[in-house]
């Protein structure tokens, strides 16, 4: 039995499971393909047989990755929204955080999951992700004085997705530069509406 380097067996198991999820996520980002259980085990420093102690199959492990990544992505966006001081800057923080996600390695993870995981596994987490983000965005739009916050929130999301398509199609080495160009375009569109100054 491997030596337990944790305060308890439960904590040890939690760490091992975390290591497997992180390994799978890293391999998805690097290859955009479904990694094998053996490859995930090697990345996490565990034998292939040990991986099966935590997940019955590769499908189960990828479903666990789906359940893990969407709340993480939502948390990254919402943390930046919450830190902005005014309704207008919260709306803009939402835009920036989403474009930054498109420019990060997490976009490769998202592309890979959309290819290797069944749609039924993705549907629930994706809907929850959207709902988590829409609430604070609509609240910020309401506080900003927008008379149609729900419609405007959907329009902003559509703009982000459309404007960020170039980011997702760009080589990783150029993704940050493309994201900055995308944000400049969105600022030209939304800046007057939000009343953004040069330092906002």
UniProtKB/TrEMBL annotation:
Keyword DNA-binding attributed: yes
SUPFAM superfamilies in UniProt: Homeodomain-like
Species name: Micromonospora gifhornensis
UniProt-recorded name of the protein: TetR family transcriptional regulator
PANTHER family per UniProt: HTH-TYPE TRANSCRIPTIONAL REGULATOR PKSA, HTH-TYPE TRANSCRIPTIONAL REGULATOR RUTR
Pfam families: TetR_N
DNA-binding region: 36-55
Keywords, in A-Z order: DNA-binding
Highest rank taxon of the organism: Bacteria
Lineage of the species this protein comes from: Bacteria, Bacillati, Actinomycetota, Actinomycetes, Micromonosporales
């Amino acid at each position: 039995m491997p030596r337990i380097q944790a305060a308890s067996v439960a904590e040890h198991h939690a760490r091992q499971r975390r290591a497997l999820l992180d390994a799978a996520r890293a391999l998805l980002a690097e290859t955009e393909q479904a990694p094998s259980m053996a490859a995930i085990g090697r990345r996490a420093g565990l034998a292939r047989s040990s991986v099966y102690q935590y997940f019955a199959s590769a499908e189960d492990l990828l479903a666990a990755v789906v359940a893990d990544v969407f709340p993480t992505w939502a948390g990254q966006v919402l943390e930046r929204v919450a830190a902005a001081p005014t309704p207008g800057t919260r709306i803009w923080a939402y835009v920036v955080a989403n474009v930054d996600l498109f420019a990060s390695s997490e976009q490769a993870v998202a592309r890979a999951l959309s290819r290797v995981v069944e749609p039924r596994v993705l549907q629930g987490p994706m809907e929850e992700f959207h709902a988590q983000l829409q609430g604070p965005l609509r609240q910020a739009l309401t506080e900003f004085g927008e008379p149609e916050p729900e419609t405007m929130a959907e329009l902003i999301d559509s703009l982000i997705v459309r404007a960020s398509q170039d980011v997702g199609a760009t080589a990783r080495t150029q993704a940050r530069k493309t994201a900055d160009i995308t944000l400049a375009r969105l600022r030209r569109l939304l800046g007057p509406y939000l009343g953004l100054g040069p330092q906002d």
